[in-house]
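Ticket #4471: structure output looks truncated?

Reporter: J.K.
Steps to reproduce: submitted the chain below (83 residues) through the standard prediction queue, then opened the result file.
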Amino acid sequence: MILFFGTRTGKPETKKLFNSICPYCQQQGTLIAISQKNYFHIFWIKLFKISSNTTIECNHCKRGYYEDEFTEEMKRELFKTTN
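Returned output as attached by the reporter:
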């Protein structure tokens, strides 16, 4: 019997952060949060989530922020929009 299993990245989810200000260029409403989740699969069927990764990018200056660089304002708005 052949068994196909492994990990696969899910589709990215984007959310616009309207009230957050970019710490680099000081523009408001230009930040976009991008979340991607990794799943374990068997026969290309997702079984459970292994990990997730969220980054924020400014559309004005193109500066990217990883999770450890998020300001409190970014975290507040990101968790407010996901709930």
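Triage note (M.O.): checked the attachment and the full token line is present. The chain has a mean pLDDT of 89.
Status: closed, working as intended.
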